Amino acid sequence: MSDSDDDSSEQDRLGGPRLWILLQLNRWILTGVVLSGVFVVLVALSFLELTPLREIVENQDGLEFLFSAFIGAIITGTSIVVTINQLVLSQELGAVGEQRDRMQDAMAFRQDVEDTIDEDASPPEPAAFLFELVDGVQERATELENVMEDERDKELREKIADYVADVDENAESVKSELENAQFGSFDVLWAALNFNYSRKIYDARKIRADYGDSFSEEASEKIDHMIDTLKLFSPAREHFKTLYFQWELINLSRALLYISVPALTLMAFMIMYVDGSALPGSALGVDYLVWLTSAGFVVGISPFVVFITYILRIATVAKRTLAMGPFILRESERDEDLG
């Protein structure tokens, strides 16, 4: 997977319920599930032998106390959105010289990749660029395996064969995920996380160190080329990860701004027009006031829940990619060589 994802087990790399929820599940669907759960719990609590909500509202002005607090919280949250936008925009602002340096650095990196994977011009789209880079890694692995056919050391040939098989399997899986991926969705970054380049760098260097005397000059050159190609994947992934974070923070800011005004409007409605005498009667054994108050509470916390669902994904990706380069942070794929 990555620096920290690389150590992932096969199941961890490819998914699992927890990672699917944290990373792949649509943020609006996750928000809807959380809010629906809160609504159901609030309505269900009305069946407990506690003081009825209507009595609390009549005697203690409970609705005004509850929903007036939401107004302050939503306005404060909107201010945080402005701060987030300023943070994101500050990364894009700069003098012409700084912008030119960024452009030159990007072009220099693209040229390095093209020289290493033998491409005349690498694709401009992130998914296609990563596809070509992973394909280049796969080609280097095939070249390495081909030159090993003439090596006399049988154990070394078997080691290389196993290594190449692992590279091929992982590369094919990642390439299939990148084929229809579009930047802006999480698909591109998810595919990048599934390529455990750090582990592959370690394995190649370990084989190089253990069997250095057994390598022919050509084989030695091929495995070094393999390592050099893998090294390019890390800065490429980190760059696209940074762009994705900026993209997501902008989407989060827009989502919170869209939700805030309707939420504030409903909070004002609950304070101004709903009291203990409103909506007499019940449905399904639940007081209408409970239905209305529960719905109002869910709308009141909706900006906060949207914020949580977006930040959960960003924080999870950040944790899984803390180390850049040939470092493995998690324990899921440790072995005797890593101890």
Explained architecture:
- The protein has 339 residues and is mainly alpha-helical.
- The protein has one domain.
- It is 73% helix and 1% strand.
- It has a two-stranded antiparallel ribbon.
- Helix 3 packs antiparallel against helix 12 (288-320) and helix 11 packs antiparallel against helix 12 (288-320).
- Residues 1-14 have low confidence and may be disordered.
Percent of residues in helices comes to: over 70%
Cα gyration radius (Å): 27 Å
- Count of DSSP H/I helices: 12
Order of helices and strands: HHHHHHHHHHHEEH
Query: What can be said about the biggest beta sheet?
Result: 2 strands, antiparallel
Please describe the topology of this protein.
Elements: H1 10-14, H2 17-24, H3 27-45, H4 53-60, H5 62-90, H6 96-117, H7 126-147, H8 154-178, H9 187-193, H10 197-210, H11 217-273, E1 282-283, E2 286-287, H12 288-320
Antiparallel strand pairs: 1-2
Key terms:
339 residues; mainly alpha; two-stranded antiparallel ribbon; 2 strands; disordered N terminus
Summarize the structure.
The chain contains twelve helices and two strands; from the N terminus they run H-H-H-H-H-H-H-H-H-H-H-E-E-H. It has 339 residues and is mainly α.
